[in-house]
């Protein structure tokens, strides 16, 4: 069973998938990530543990890319804590090159207050203003195709950190489906 049931329709045992995390995240979750890949549970998934700016992705090699509860991390950088800053525009350009025309970029993340400073929201709350995601992708090779509402939660306490037990698993989350332009 997947840790992310929303991935069931995307991941397949008939193709090659890649899972990316950076080393600080792997260090943070420690043993939580090990069961995902234990006992050849996901034989078609290649783990990529590298900083986002160091990703080497072949041109036009992806038909689907999912960023699940991670987009906010692109705004967080703490060199002293071992979490390198990410060049957001560079990452979007890298995704544009790596994704095939017509492919899908799916984004799910915890919602921050409208207009929230992206660095503060990421560092303090592990959240992002959905408009910031749209702004990051505006003018890129991606076009917003749909926004789903089924993970929205107007009762979320958006000023609480997303991992706070009071809100964990029931935060207000945005879901965007972007299509790679031809």
Task: Describe, in plain words, how this protein is organized in 3D.
The protein is an alpha/beta fold and 182 residues long. The protein has one domain: Rossmann fold, CATH 3.40.50.150. It contains 5 helices and 6 strands. The strands form 2 sheets. A 4-stranded mixed sheet has the order 3-4-6-5. The protein has a two-stranded parallel ribbon with strand order 1-2. β3, α3 (88-98) and β4 form a beta-alpha-beta unit. It is globular.
Nutshell version of this structure?
The chain is α/β, with parallel strands linked by helices. Helices cover 21% and strands 24% of the residues.
H and E string: EHHEEHEHHEE
The mean pLDDT is 88
CATH T-level fold name: Rossmann fold
Number of E-state strands: 6
**Largest sheet, spatial ordering of strands:** 3-4-6-5
* Main CATH class: Alpha Beta
- Cα distance spanning the termini: 35 Å
Main beta sheet strand tally, sense and closure: 4 strands, mixed
Q: What CATH architecture would you give?
A: 3-Layer(aba) Sandwich
- Helix amount: 10-25%
Look at the structure and name the CATH superfamily.
Vaccinia Virus protein VP39
Please state roughly what percent of the residues sit in beta strands, choosing from under 5%, 5-15%, 15-25%, 25-35%, 35-45% or over 45%.
15-25%
Gyration radius, to the nearest Å?
16 Å
Low-pLDDT parts are 1-9
Question: Outline, from the CA principal axes?
Answer: globular
Q: Helical stretch count?
A: 5
Number of domains: 1
The secondary structure category is alpha/beta
